[in-house]
Specification:
184 residues; Hypothetical protein af1432
Length: 184
């Protein structure tokens, strides 16, 4: 299996451009932020590695098959697959993107895998931290009012009472208050 350092290098090589809504934050920093969040809450390297690989599947034209050929473990591949939208549909409409997200959430629920939920909640946690940068107010509201409450509920189910879940809630509430202040 590739080392952690090799995986980080793969992410930096494949995830190019800048973070959504910015022109100065490299896109791969999202993966490193989430890795650091998982590390700070004592999730093991398998979970951290799955997170690092998640976005190169979801957004950067890498397949699970390619990762398997690089000798990533089945456990890492399973976590990546569970926490990743189905990306086989080319040029998806907004409705397609919503359906892909629903399908992923259904797979997560059916798998009943705490590590996969950690990967996804950490992803949403970092997105929450950055959502104030979204220029489109309606997308920001949809993210905070529609998408995040699902993860508040699932996060409580899997991690309620933990420092990891509390960090997610703190970030979420901070953005909600920021949005409310902005709307006034």
């Amino acid at each position: 299996m590739p080392t952690f350092e090799q995986t980080e290098n793969l992410v930096k090589e494949r995830i190019t451009w800048f973070r959504k809504w910015t022109d100065d934050i490299p896109n791969y920093t999202h993966s490193l932020n989430v890795r650091d969040l998982l590390r700070s809450h004592w999730f093991d390297e398998t979970v951290q590695m799955a997170w690092l690989l998640h976005d190169i599947i979801e957004d950067w034209n890498t397949t699970l098959q390619e990762l398997q050929e690089m000798w990533y473990s089945q456990e890492v591949l399973t976590l990546v697959d569970l926490a990743t939208h189905d990306v086989t549909l080319e040029n998806p409409t907004d409705e397609d993107k919503f359906q892909r997200r629903k399908n992923m959430m259904k797979r997560l629920e059916e798998a009943n895998n705490k590590s996969a939920w950690a990967v996804k909640l950490a992803d949403i946690c970092d997105n929450v931290n950055q959502c104030h940068l979204m220029p489109n107010l309606e997308k920001k509201k949809r993210f905070l009012y529609e998408k995040c409450p699902y993860f508040v509920k699932q996060g409580n189910k899997w991690f309620g009472g933990s420092a990891f879940y509390q960090e997610f809630l703190n970030r979420y509430l901070k953005q909600m208050f920021r949005l409310l202040e902005w709307e006034q």
